[in-house]
Amino acid sequence: MENAINDAMITAIQLLDKQAVISNNLANISTTGFKEQLNYIINKNHNNTNMLDKEKVKEYYNFSQGILNYTERNLDCVVQNNGWLVVKDSHGQEAYTKNGHIKINKYGKLTIQNHPIVGNNCDISIPNGSNIKISSTGKIILINKTTKDVKDIIIGALKLVRCSDNNLLKRKNGLFYFNKKIKSYKHKNLNHDNNIRIKSGTLESSNVNPTKNMIDMISNARQFDIQMKIISMCDKNIEYANQLLNVNSQ
Fold first, then answer.
1. CB 3 within 8 A of CB 48
2. Mapping DSSP to helix (H, G, I), strand (E, B) and coil, where does residue 121 land?
3. pLDDT of the chain, 250 residues: tens digit per residue
4. Are residues 76 and 197 in the same domain?
5. DSSP one-letter code for 182
């Protein structure tokens, strides 16, 4: 009886964790470049009767591309060929994102969600009042219009990286990081990849499927109710058993 209650409680906790993940997915339907999170359970030890030791919940992400929205804004871009834009987090560490909604801050630096963008072996600084665009290879081009002609000047380039999906970890700040526990990788940060291409004037929307996530949320809620009923029934059975024991002992 106690095992049934224990198993039901653990299952209920796992369902609550899934609900939190689904809620986060639904809350980020409109977040540019957001990648859907999913959880799955790994059986660690088939011979162990304790579910806490037997099962481990692991998170992974759906890295499929979201719908492309054409904004015609020069600083909006989508990274193609499984590439990632590189930014620096609040601790100065390199992180990776699919959010291509680039802005220029008051210091003339390119940013994504207030995170400074990392250049390809350069420090990108945008002159005040400049009109710029991003080429397909990630070069930052200053559009210098004169009365006679138009001269394009390259003032920097974006750092673009490629990494296997299995080697990426997401943190609470919404950015992805390279899993540095992998022994085969010797460098501190990922290197620039010259084969990655940029599509400017476009943004990648979230790849969350709202219908699927709503169905999963309803299903999890029903399963949670079942686990609560199991616990309640077990409690009643224990109570009845105690009453019988008390009667027999008289």
1. no
2. coil
3. 567 778 888 888 888 889 999 999 999 999 999 999 988 766 655 555 555 555 666 788 999 999 999 999 999 999 987 899 999 999 999 999 999 999 999 999 999 999 999 999 999 999 888 889 999 999 999 887 665 566 678 899 999 999 888 888 899 899 999 876 654 455 568 899 999 999 999 999 999 999 999 999 999 999 989 888 888 888 777 777 666 666 555 5
4. yes
5. -
Q: Which two tokens stand for residue 206?
A: 């979230």
| Contact (CB, 8 A) for 142 and 153 | yes
Instruction: Say if 116 falls within a structural domain.
Output: yes
- Single-letter code of the amino acid located at 165: D
Rounded Cα gap, residues 118 and 85, in angstroms: 8
Residue 155 to residue 161: CA distance in whole angstroms: 20
From start to end of the chain, where are the E strands? Answer: 36-43, 55-62, 68-70, 77-79, 83-88, 94-97, 103-104, 110-112, 115-116, 132-134, 139-145, 150-157, 160-162, 168-170, 176-178, 198-200, 202-204
Please state at what angle helix 210-249 crosses helix 2-27, rounded to 10 degrees: 160
Number of domains composing the chain: 2
Question: Which of 209, 173, 217, 174 is CA-nearest to residue 18?
Answer: 217
Which two tokens mark 156?
Answer: 């920097």
DSSP 160: E
Where in the sequence is the domain holding 226, given as residue range(s)?
A: 2-17+39-61+209-248
- How distant is the alpha carbon of residue 11 from its chain centre? 25
* Measured distance CA(232)–CA(224) in Å, rounded: 12
